[in-house]
Automatic annotation (TrEMBL):
GO terms for biological process: cellular response to oxidative stress. InterPro entries: Glutathione_peroxidase, GPX_AS, GPX_CS, Thioredoxin-like_sf, Thioredoxin_domain. The active site is at C54. It holds the Pfam family GSHPx. CDD domains: GSH_Peroxidase. Residues 16-177 form the Thioredoxin domain. This is Glutathione peroxidase. One of its GO terms (molecular function) is peroxidase activity. Belongs to the glutathione peroxidase family. Keywords: Oxidoreductase, Peroxidase.
């Protein structure tokens, strides 16, 4: 079933078929509870694959600042831990939650650890990559802290490289709020 879904998601952009929106996906929270992304309907989302032992881990601070400043105005930040890049997120979901809370006082929504590339990539990330392909038209996520900005209608409007600091995205966020 997982393989069939991967094949279908691969052909969706080629055939010109698109899902209604990002709200069709279900994901697991860091506490392993399944939720629908329809929870974020009519909100701007910044979706980020994160890691606690990465050179960009300091970006948690900037992401949390954006959350504090704009969550009441309609911004939701969604952090998806990923261990596909040099074992930079080796811990359990519980370890990750504790690290984020104690080290960066993260209050934005965190989710269960996922793969963002390869056969086992999360269907959400397959969708994100097909919506905004990235450098040189490749869909691959190159590193942790790749960011996707989604408007209130569920459309993926922009992709940012791992080196883009959260503060550099603020104007784009304000424009969508």
């Amino acid at each position: 079933m997982k393989k069939l879904l991967s094949i279908l998601l691969f052909f969706i952009p080629i055939l010109g078929i698109s899902q209604t929106s990002i709200y069709d996906f279900k994901v697991k929270t860091i506490d392993n509870k399944e939720i629908s992304l329809s929870k974020y309907k009519n909100r701007v989302m910044l979706i980020v694959n994160v890691a606690s032992k990465c050179g960009f881990t300091y970006q948690y601070e900037g992401l949390e600042k954006l959350h504090e400043k704009y969550s009441s105005k309609g911004l939701s930040i969604l952090g998806f831990p990923c261990n596909q890049f040099l074992n930079q997120e080796p811990g359990t979901n519980e370890d990750i939650k504790e690290f984020c809370s104690l080290t960066y006082q993260v209050k934005f929504d965190m989710f269960s650890k996922i793969d963002v590339n390869g056969d086992d990539a999360s269907p959400l990330y397959k969708y994100l990559k097909s919506s905004q392909s990235g450098l040189f038209g490749t869909g691959i996520i190159k590193w942790n802290f790749t960011k996707f900005l989604v408007n209130r209608d569920g459309k993926v409007v922009k992709r940012y490289s791992p080196s883009t600091n959260p503060s550099e995205i603020e104007d784009d966020i304000k424009e969508l709020l």
